[in-house]
Design a protein that fits this description.
Elements lengths: L20 E6 L4 H12 L3 E6 L2 H14 L7 E5 L5 H12 L3 E7 L14 H29 L7 E6 L12 H21 L4 E8 L8 H4 L2 H9 L9 H12 L10 E4 L25
Parallel strand pairs: 1-2, 1-4, 2-3, 4-5, 5-6, 6-7
Helix pairs in contact: 1-8, 3-4, 4-5
Length: 290
Amino acid sequence: MSAPTDSSSGGESTASTATGEVALVTGGGSGIGWACARTLLETGATVVIAGRDPDRLRAGATALAAAVPEARDRIVTQVCDVTSEQSVIDTCDHTGSLGRFTMLVVNAGFGSAGPLEATALAEWDAVIATNLTGAFLTVRSAIPHLAATAGTRSGGSAIVAISSIASTHTHRYMTPYAVSKAGLDMLIRQTADEMGPVGIRANSVRPGLVPTDATTLLMSVPHVHEDYLSQMPTGRVGSPEEVASLVAFLAGPQSAWITGACIAVDGGHHLRRGPDLSSIMPSFGTPLIR
Ligand code: NDP
């Protein structure tokens, strides 16, 4: 039997070291984004955490420095609103000025819940503006930087988006969110197809329920929490770190031949159905108090 051959481009090492590289994590001051930032810091990269609230960013940076002390000098905060085109351009340009901008984690996002017929246009617009248009602006603004550095590392540059199980499984009463995440997955697949030739890979991950600031309310309703658990073969919610380890894999050279993939990280929830929020929703036609 012949010895296995190294089929990676040029046969470079695929060791997980990102020294000299820079990653941008939108929404990196909390939750899943924070865990992604931590994991990428552990690979040796400089990490820019971006978000709207400077206090949240400062607290996130302090917690990152405590979690990865050797990375203290590689943590950068950047105030950024992903719904603002100029803010996103400035953030990507700043990230590019710090070194080899090779990794982008498109994480900023939020959800809302309510009956479809009572969904205000403003609520729809806000969710789409952040989760989908914000993702588009971030990807588009990062592309020139990622293309410039793609040739400097095995597997090229990488974009990883935080989608959701809601992109594929209906989540009754969460229509704007589900639609935004379905659109995000298509944005990632489009990006992968178009940008592959210049060395940029793009993938998304689809988390199931993970305790963060965003899900505190949802998880505080026993009926809803139990329903989520009943749809997960593993019978438990995930952690931000479990999502982050998949993100780091997709951002790094070990996944050099993976692009355009949308991967579940959800304890098997995607094998069953979306959550049942009906117990906390008004019946059809009931006026909502907002
Ligand atoms: P968090 O609320 O902790 O994180 C959301 C982050 O996004 C915050 O740091 C927030 O910072 C930032 N953000 C929101 N809007 C903007 C904006 N306009 N511009 C820049 N940053 C923004 O919740 P999660 O960690 O749970 O959410 C992270 C991602 O994971 C989201 O995309 C979410 O949809 C997705 N997800 C979460 C799941 C879960 O169960 N937790 C399941 C599936 C997907 P700031 O307010 O300072 O701007």
